[in-house]
Amino acid sequence: METKDFLKNFKGFSVQDFEDLTYAMIKPDAVSAKDEIIRDIESRGFSILFQHEYQFSKELAENFYSEHKGKGFYDRLVDQMTAGPVVVLILKKKGIIPCYQLWRDELGATNPANAIEGTLRNTYTQKLFGGPEAYAEGRATNCFHGADSIASVIRESNLVLYDIVMS
Ligand code: CMP
Q: Ligand 1 centre and the CA of 1: distance in Å?
């Protein structure tokens, strides 16, 4: 679906609708495996409502991750997220628990060294970087992002989709 068409629907979404949606990203250093990753995401029961490959500007990355400003990893995170295009995803899955949580369960822990086998971060840090050490050493990302609350789903999707439309 075209970004503008998706946005027309998106503007009408209620907070209730956002329970069944999440904002997700494939980070730049995992985009080379995007086709396999998208199939994997769908096999885990998520529908892809929106998919768009997009180059984050430094300003957008800083704004997106503003809650981490001042932390030791912030500058590296901004560099990693602007090193190449990300794949922006709006995912849908209905369940008893909100979609953002279902997605985070599939991702596994932020630090891939703590992500259990079968989770996306465990699987793709193994496949792409040979193991979770690359993240610990700052040579690689944890491959994926997932919003951490319904408020974050709304904030992050608005921020990025409007940046895409205005670009
Ligand atoms: P993400 O899901 O994109 O949300 C915030 C990001 O900050 C997170 O994934 C990691 O890439 C990064 N991050 C969070 N905590 C740490 C940490 N302790 N060390 C390095 N990077 C971190």
A: 30
